[in-house]
Amino acid sequence: MANLLVTGGAGFIGVNLVRWWKERNPDDALTVLDSLTYAGNANSLDGLVGTEGFEFIHGDIRDTDMVTDIISDKGIDVLVHLAAESHVDRSIEGPDAFIDTNVVGTHSLLKAARKVWFTNDRWAPHRFHHVSTDEVYGSLAMDDPAFNEETPYAPNSPYSASKAGSDHLVRAYHHTFGMEVTTTNCSNNYGGYQFPEKLIPLVLINTLHGKPLPIYGDGMNVRDWLHVSDHCRGIELAIRKGDPGETYCIGGRNEAPNIEIVKMICRLLGERFAADPELSSRFPECPAASGRDNQELITYVKDRPGHDRRYAIDPTKASSELGYEPEMTFESGIANTIDWYLANEPWWKAVTDGSYRDWIDTNYGARQS
Ligand code: NAD
Ligand code: TYD
Fold first, then answer.
1. CA separation, residue 121 to residues 116, 118, 285 (Å)
2. First-to-last CA distance in the chain?
3. Percentage helix, strand, coil, to 5, in the chain?
């Protein structure tokens, strides 16, 4: 039995990971630490809070003393670190929070973990798993080979630079102090519980409401899309089988230009409306509700400054050393995601109309923006 501390466990991947872990490892104890920024949603933990072996703590990873107490009091032996500022566009508007949380916050966790796990010149059994991104490797030309663990770091946005900084700190705590760390660098995730500022949920929800679908630049930027369940699979494998000090690239072998992804969602939603007349009464503003093509909503807008052209992951090392293989194709993953958003309208409605914040303020007190 393990005692896990999951930071950022009220965010998109964190929520999916704690659900994934609890289902497969019901005897493990899970503590979630999350400061509930705009991206953290305690509603996403419904059904877990209050159950045995699960605890939610509202707190900030930068509070080193508090983190030290949690690791010590709860006997945490596995720390899975996902807490972060995660949206590139926000990092362009205001980089400071990214440095504070992603760099300083990661160092705060490393300090706290070392303080508890390393006593009398000995390490207690432990694992520090750091969840990072492929964006630390920079941008690929169309004919470049995909990123792998040997690709030199070349982050381009304040977000990716702050994640690169956190990766280096994690590496240094292994190299210098002997902490048992693993890092996964993953490609773009999609799936249920994703905050609708990211491309796929934004396009889904805007289409349902007949709102414009903003395509940055020429829409030909390429991402390597991975369903979040396959990311969770990769994280669990890295924790269980990964060698301390190693990094693993996790991806879906599913590269596609943004415009193709958006057109596919438009088409699939159109097919859903054609097959289920109830959707037209639920979402009358969706073009498909009046027999029109959802693609009429596509709107090309000014490009993101410094927009990375292409990301792609070569997961050979994770595959050969961890036995990692993605199980979702993009077709099955996107169908599953559309089903999730159609079935969980109250979740995303509360996010888009802001009422999730009122609920959280009432239950957890004032929070940072
Ligand atoms: P998210 O923005 O949905 O969630 C981040 C969570 O961290 C939120 O719940 C937020 O409240 C919490 N948080 C932020 N600052 C905090 C602080 N100071 N103290 C405690 N909690 C804090 O992000 P996500 O998409 O779930 O990403 C999780 C991790 O995975 C991040 O580290 C991100 O860099 C990495 N990642 C994401 C993707 C992706 O496609 N989403 C891909 C690869 C890697
Ligand atoms: P995003 O989901 O923000 O992830 P990241 O920037 O970390 O890759 O964006 C995915 C791609 O979609 C990226 O190339 C930017 C583009 N994009 C748009 O074209 N329009 C949008 O409204 C958003 C949010 C993203």
1. 12, 6, 65
2. 36
3. 45, 15, 35
Q: How many domains are contained in the chain?
A: 1
User: pLDDT tens across 359-368, in order?
Assistant: 677 776 654 4
Ligand 1 centroid–CA 40 distance in Å is 8
Q: Does the residue 218 lie in any domain?
A: no
What average pLDDT does this structure show over 1-18?
97
Q: CA-based angle 219:334:287, to the nearest 5?
A: 65
Domain harbouring 144, CATH code? 3.40.50.720
Nearest CA owner, ligand 1 atom 29: 82
Which range marks the domain in which residue 143 is found? 3-193+225-254+312-328+353-364
Q: How many angstroms is it from 143 CA to the middle of ligand 1? A: 31
Query: In the β-sheet with 54-58, what is the strand arrangement from edge to edge?
Result: 54-58, 29-34, 3-7, 78-81, 127-133, 181-186, 246-250
Ligand nearest to the CA of 234: 1
Q: How far is CA 214 from the centre of its chain?
A: 22
User: Would 74 be classed as within a structural domain?
Assistant: yes
* pTM, two decimal places: 0.97
